[in-house]
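User: Okay, second chain of the day. Same drill as before: sequence in, structure tokens out.
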Amino acid sequence: MRTTSPSQSSQFRRGFTVLELMLSVAIMTVIVIALYTVFDVTQKALRSTISQVDALEGSRAASDLLVRDFQSATPVDVANTNWTSFSAYLNPVAVPVNLEGLKKGGGTVLQTAIQDIFFVTRQNDTWTAIGYWVGPVNTNQVGQPITVGRLYRWAYETNATAFAYTNLYARFNSALRVRDSQMVLDGVVHLRVQTYDVAGFRLVVNPERDDPPEPQGAEAALAQRYPPIFNGRRAWFLDPLDAGRNFRTAYLFRQVTIPAFPSTLELELGVLEPQVVTRAASIPNVDASRDFLARQAGSIHYFRHRIPLRNAPPF
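Assistant: Same drill. Structure tokens below.
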């Protein structure tokens, strides 16, 4: 019978050396770090995708709402107190952003513009004034400069009798607009409409150059009550940073304009992704926020629609 001495059995029971343990720990550490990196990158990609999907869904729903409303826009007869059929002018406190291309040194690809848009719709004897405007998330800060904000929808409905003496355009441009508006979409950095005539040519109808006739009777009284709306003052429609832009971004259609109403609109809507909106909101200085947004062209979802107006005159 063969026996094993204690010295021989201890050789078979020998454990790992310190070097082997350190090497094993190092290999496991590398594996864990690699797995964590892959997991982290996957999570970031997933969050980014979800954020983009949410932004796209919200933007698409908002653009569909705008299209439906614009399609129902109706011209207003000059005999009414409501002599404004359609208006789009630059928000006087909106600060434009020169968006830079993704290629370094490629220059500006788009200069943002934020308009306040007003129009009227009609269904039988019910008239509804609708307005879209962009303001801060906190409505107590309305009137302060903004580069990106929340899209609001204002609406006021009245019957044919009240429509004759209720100036809806003046109401839209009053302080009541903030109280009566509903939130539509956050992160709006660009909102603009351009108008076209029945032949498809782009119109440039500027209140400053349109030179409407002096209001008479009841309109004269309203002109004294709401001078910024009726007298076409140059300062009221001007972009605070670039007055020349107003010739391309301000419209006012009435029975006294030529044409009195557009046949087609082109809607442009630019929406930032939520994380970029949060980052921009954390920058208190307007100029610094504008410089930051200028480099975020890749984070903007841009929508453009050509919208025929069903109630436009056929000439």
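Confidence is low (pLDDT under 50) at residues 205-247.

User: Thanks, on to the next one.
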